[in-house]
Write a structure and sequence with these properties.
Largest sheet: none
Helix content: 40-55%
Number of helices: 2
Strand content: under 5%
Shape: rod-shaped
Number of strands: 0
Structural class: mainly alpha
Distance between the termini: 90 Å
Length: about 60
């Protein structure tokens, strides 16, 4: 004779508190800063003189 199985008890999942948006923003900015610092090591520095910067503005389309 077949007997019905008892349903397995499901363990309740503990609720985790919602992440603080300030922590998420700070973490994101820290990650962005780390990426920028890493790129600064790879990319060559570009120093332009004031005259070169002014010439660039003069050639901008209006």
């Amino acid at each position: 004779m077949l007997t019905a199985r008892k349903p397995a008890l499901v363990q309740p999942v503990p609720e985790t508190p919602a992440a603080d948006p300030a922590d998420t923003t700070t973490e994101g900015l820290a990650h962005l800063l780390a990426e920028m610092q890493g790129l600064a090591l790879v990319l060559p520095p570009v120093d332009r003189t004031d005259a070169e910067i002014e010439a660039g503005f003069d050639n901008m389309p209006v």
